TrEMBL record:
<dbReference type="GO" id="GO:0006355">
    <property type="term" value="P:regulation of DNA-templated transcription"/>
</dbReference>
<dbReference type="InterPro" id="IPR010985">
    <property type="entry name" value="Ribbon_hlx_hlx"/>
</dbReference>
<dbReference type="InterPro" id="IPR013321">
    <property type="entry name" value="Arc_rbn_hlx_hlx"/>
</dbReference>
<protein>
    <submittedName>
        <fullName>Uncharacterized protein</fullName>
    </submittedName>
</protein>
Amino acid sequence: MKATDKTKILLTIPEDLKEELVKEADAVNRSLNNYILTVLLKREK
């Protein structure tokens, strides 16, 4: 994926969901952004 193929979005989520996602991301040594992207790319289509 090239940088020109990317776009930024603003995502508003509840604080408790963010905390949960941060813990999950930390557990697999990923940033929150990278973890969310990985989860979305691996979802069943």
